[in-house]
Specification:
By secondary structure, this protein is mostly beta strands. Helix content is 9%, strand content 19%. It is extended and about 45 Å long. 0% of the residues are buried.
Length: 54
């Protein structure tokens, strides 16, 4: 959580497998939302996460 007065700039390196042409960021009501869609190649390499049901 950060708070500041005035404008600021933040640089975040993107991981590999992200389609940089389709990255979308919106700032609404104090909440920054960033969408990082995967490339088709990265989607095909998907990783599974096992889920335990108790």
């Amino acid at each position: 959580m950060e708070r500041t007065y005035g404008s600021f700039n933040r640089v975040i390196p993107l991981p590999q497998g992200i389609d940089t042409k389709k990255v979308n960021a919106t700032f609404k009501k104090g909440l920054l939302s960033i969408r990082l869609p995967k490339t088709e190649e990265a989607k095909s390499k998907g990783k599974g996460v096992p889920v335990k049901v108790e």
